[in-house]
Amino acid sequence: MWRDHLTEIIVFTLLFLLVSAMGFVAARWRAPKDMAHLDEWGLGGRSFGGWITWFLVGGDLYTAYTFVAVPALLFGAGAAGFFAVPYTVIIYPLVFLLLVRLWSVSHRHGFVTPADFVRQRFGSPTLALLIAITGIAATMPYIALQLVGIEAVLKTMGVTGESTVARHLPIIIAFAILAAYTYQSGLRAPALIAFVKDTLIYIVILVAVIYLPYKLGGWGEIFDAADAKFDASPSPGDGILLNQNNQLQYITLALGSALALFLYPHSITGVLASKNRDVIKRNMSALPAYSLLLGLIALLGYMAIAANVKPLPGATEGSVDNNTVVPLLFEQQFPSWFAGIAFAAIGIGALVPAAIMSIAAANLFTRNIYKEYLKRDATAAQEANVSKIASLVVKVGAVACIVFLDPQFSIDLQLIGGVIILQTLPAVALGLYTRWFHRGALIAGWAAGMGLGMWMLYQIPNPATKREHFGGSAFALEKFGLDTPKTIYVGLVAVAVNLLVAVIFTLILRAAKVAEGPDGTNRDDYFADEGDPRLVPVPVSTPTPRRASDDVPTEPVA
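^ SSS family solute:Na+ symporter, sequence as received from the core. Prediction below:
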């Protein structure tokens, strides 16, 4: 009953109201020139410095679901759940040079989305449309997952009900407030709130990793309890160490997730909002601090085992919701007021990434679908208005996913999202360094990788939910005819095929002398920095500046 959690609910509500007020005030923060423009509403004026960018990107990548799901994965499967730690370590050296090039060319031409860059680079609205649709499709389930994090907290506090409406009403209200201040303040709202969110997260986790081992008898007792749990489990894939059955899956999942992370549109939105290249370089060097925090957060899963935490019932009869183990751990081991702060940290941790993701998806729709195909002469104010409305629609869609779908299906959808966003790697990431690929070959590679990825995902069952298809991203190699029990991450196989097809078709199309399309960028564009007179300034009036891509011939619009 919620009356048993009154102190936690009061603390949670007060902090939630505080950040909501900050979200509305953010519209006046850093004196925006003209909020009726995507550069201001969707990118915060492209003027964020080092600290703001660090909190914004960190708050965007390390979501509430991360804080709930990673420990839950360790609680259920053991060492395999640590894949999230190495992938967030290796990602930053991988993208260090890529992102500064993307920042330069984007500020040189006024790009707002990665699809803007692809259109200009390869002169192909069709390829840009595929990149935009892929980004939107991959982002939608990611937003829904943030609601899973909030729902886990609300269930632990007893704020739930029997009917569908009663059970989800608090989440609907929370997202209605989020939608309102995001509509008004744009990217400034999550940027300002991220300071509070990350401060709360750091305080809660540091207290937990110092206090809980002391209370539970030390780290030796914690790991012994986890080891005993997995020794008694019949599953061949769990344990506090990896075994020969899950090592390949672990490696490929970590590498594939690392390659995918900065292809998500919301990750790029935070990067494009920074004011110069040095801000990005400093952030790629400092963001691994979040990975250290994530490693500590992951260990909460083993602490929950040692504390004998029992997950709350799941959505279907006989199932359990492992996402509740972290909230339950804090509720059982800490005073109510501190548990309330921990719950608020998780809840607010959902709002920041959800806001950025909805803005990124809305920008993709506005720039690469609405302006490209529906209203090519749209003014800057019309673009901003369409993007605001689209962000509301995206949030409504995310809430609908939680209300009408099994939460486990939303989690599986997010795994699918990682597979499909990887198929944009050749056009977006490799396109920053080379124009060698033919635009038609990139489309063929995207289709091949997407088709193979969907087929492989369709073959994967989920034993926990008894669903026969789309039950995760670990593909059994025996389905390829190999005599092995090992599995591999679908995304990495699909993007490898994508690249292979792109290379082969590039050679074929070039031999056939098929027009390759113009490259609207030049080498110097990738090195432009703050103060360069060639950068597109943030406009203060409503007319939309013509993009350079409007002045170059392109392939016919499909």
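The mean pLDDT is 87.
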